[in-house]
Amino acid sequence: MTRKTYFIADLHLSENRPDISTAFFKFLESNILNQDVDALYILGDFFEVWVGDDYVTELAGDVAKYLKAVSNAGTPVYFIHGNRDFIMREQYTSLAGMTLLEEQTVIDLYGTPTVILHGDEMCTQDTEYQNFRKKSRSWWWPRLMLAMPLWYRKKIARNAREKSKQSQADKPIEILDVVEDAVLATFEKHGVSNMIHGHTHRPNVHTYTKNGETLTRTVLGDWYTQGSYLQVTPISQQLINTLL
Questions:
Q1: Distance (Å, rounded) from C-alpha 189 to C-alpha 50?
Q2: What is the C-alpha separation between 150 and 185, in angstroms, rounded?
Q3: Could you report the per-residue pLDDT of 214-230, keeping only the tens digit for each?
Q4: Shortest CA distance to 46 belongs to which of 168, 174, 220?
Q5: What is the four-CA torsion angle of 161, 154, 199, 105, rounded to 10 degrees?
Q6: Which residues contact 39 (CB under 8 A, 6 or more apart)?
Q7: Which domain holds residue 97?
Q8: Which of 74, 136, 184, 216 is the most exposed place for a label (fewest CB within 10 A)?
Q9: How far apart are CA 69 and CA 36, in angstroms?
Q10: Three-class DSSP labels, 72-86
């Protein structure tokens, strides 16, 4: 049986979109559970919003049970923070059987060193967001937020979502996409030729040539209207998008 590794991102799971969570559970049942799968990587924005590990909704509990079953069955599950769930901590990842990785992590993908990340740090033209990202990833900001009462964190999250929607609506799509210089700098930083990320909701496979070497960047899609995942075997990488 062919060995496989799967990558997903940007599901934005929420109680308002039960169709997405249903599609995700079917994806696990069809592709991961009881299959010969080496790993499942979740590259951020798994949930639409995350206000703290002390608030596990019924949906988050169900997701944790499914992922724990995957982990218990022998398939390791890895998680990288996105811009929606960056204050998720070990309390929930442990409950879900996930291993939390650094924001940029290099893995050995069947002999190919590959950098995996959410990808928002490469959208450097969006200076407004990058300023927020710098603050939100500091050592003090998450601690301050998690020290606030739960009702206040929920209020902040609601306001942040509305502000984000308005901000994105007012910006050209080019500003919201990754910048080539930042992409090439990330390749060079890690000394790899393969990259996998999400965030932009623009699933595609991009190639670059630098110093005679071909660099490959695979962008995972969101799950608003499709189930988007990358299936990698020892001999192939296939970006798959299926309608919900």
A1: 30
A2: 39
A3: 999 999 999 999 999 99
A4: 220
A5: 150
A6: 5, 6, 75, 76, 77, 78
A7: 4-243
A8: 74
A9: 15
A10: HCCCCEEECCCCCCC
- How many domains is the chain partitioned into structurally? 1
**Joined tokens for residue 202:** 């623009």
Contact present, 103 and 80 (Cβ < 8 Å): yes
Q: Which of 135, 31, 32, 50 is nearest to 100 (CA)?
A: 50
Question: Which residues lie across from 40 on neighbouring strands?
Answer: 6, 77
- From 187, 191, 189, select the one nearest 208 (Cα to Cα): 187
Q: In what order do the strands lie in the sheet with 77-79?
A: 98-100, 77-79, 37-42, 4-8, 226-233, 236-243
Cβ count near 147 (within 10 Å): 9
pTM of the model: 0.95
**Is the pLDDT at 175 greater than 80, yes or no?**
no
* CATH classification at residue 71: 3.60.21.10
DSSP 122: G
What element of type H or E holds 39? strand 37-42
79 φ, ψ to 5°? -135, 135
CA angle centred on 198, ends 193 and 199, rounded to 5°: 130
**Which value, in Å, is the radius of gyration of the alpha carbons in the chain?**
18
pLDDT in tens, 69-126: 999 999 999 999 999 999 999 999 999 999 999 999 999 999 999 999 999 999 999 9
Provide the sign of the torsion angle of the four alpha carbons 22, 76, 219, 112, taken in this order: negative
Which amino acid is it at 60?
A
Q: Which two tokens stand for residue 57?
A: 């909704």
